[in-house]
Amino acid sequence: GGTRKCWNFHGKCRHKCFKKEKVYVYCTNNKLCCVKSRYLPKNLPWQI
C-alpha cells in the first residue's frame, strides 16, 4: 500500500492532485507526480 514517492521524495504519485499541488513529472505507473508548489524550482520555463 501507500503512495509512491517521486520528485526527490517531495511529491506523491496520485491519480489527481490537490489544489495546492502541481503536476511536475509523471510516475512510472501512469499516475501524476503531485508536488507542493513550495518544493518546485523557482524558474520554471512556462512561468515566463
UniProtKB/TrEMBL annotation:
Coiled coil: none annotated. Keywords: Antibiotic, Antimicrobial, Defensin, Disulfide bond, Secreted, Signal. Its main location: secreted. Residues 5-34 form the Beta-defensin domain. InterPro entries: Beta-defensin, Beta_defensin_dom. Gene3D superfamilies: Antimicrobial Peptide, Beta-defensin 2, Chain A. It is found in: Secreted. PANTHER family: BETA-DEFENSIN 123, BETA-DEFENSIN 123-RELATED. Belongs to the beta-defensin family. Has antibacterial activity. This is Beta-defensin. It comes from Bos mutus (wild yak).
